[in-house]
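Throughout our pipeline, every protein is held as a single compact record rather than as scattered files. Such a record has a labelled line for the sequence and another for the backbone structure tokens. The remainder of this section carries one protein's record, kept here as part of the documentation:
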Amino acid sequence: MSPLLQLASVRAQLASRHFGPFDLTVDAGQRIAILGPSGAGKSTLLKLMAGERRPHAGTVCVDGMALAAHGPVALAQRRAVLPQSHTVAFGMPVELVVALGRIAHEPDPGQSAIITQALRAAQAAHLAGRRFDTLSGGEQARVQLARVFAQLWDARGGLLLVDEPLSALDPGLQFELMDAMQHYSRERGHALVAVLHDINQALAGFDRLWLIGAGQLQADMAPNVQAVSALERLYDIGLRCVAAADGTLAVLPTRRTSVRTKMASEAA
């Protein structure tokens, strides 16, 4: 069987910056975290996977067929994307924002029930009846998560792509939304690919780590003890392993004296 998503020799170029080549596959049900320093190319890779950015070379395939060959309606029924920005142009009711995820399913007699269930799954049922532009950043994140949940609600083995879904959220809400994404994806057999900044979230909740640096894939590895040294090199930091209460691997970042700092100190 063809993988759910496949990138073959995919390259991209933004001004003078080059990204790739990326040769990657995603199977239904997999959970993959994309990690790397700011500006490394994580969001560019996710946009290539989503079809929001066309590659300069190589092919991106969904279900064994080139991404460009999928019609927009068919593609929307197979993959959903949660971008970094949660802004909405108008003061729309929360239910209408979530309903945007169902556009590809019209006519959609079950829409009302799905919207209610998607809000509940995203821990956002209490926001029904509110206007989106009156919500806090964390509340808007819940509603946008409900939108992508609604989009793939009745699909099986689909693809959920999320770009820094936990940024600027308090720690408690980060755990709630990550748990919601994991539970939703497991129930439906969806692949979940997430750009993350939190190393511990990636180590605890994902099957694979894609480490991106300088526009290149530096490693594709399991989230285990062997990944720690690769993560240290990727971020130029130290990582001390600590025992997590649930038995999963956790790390404590520590400052590492860079070569530049060491040279400056010796010169002084």
In short: The radius of gyration is 20 Å.
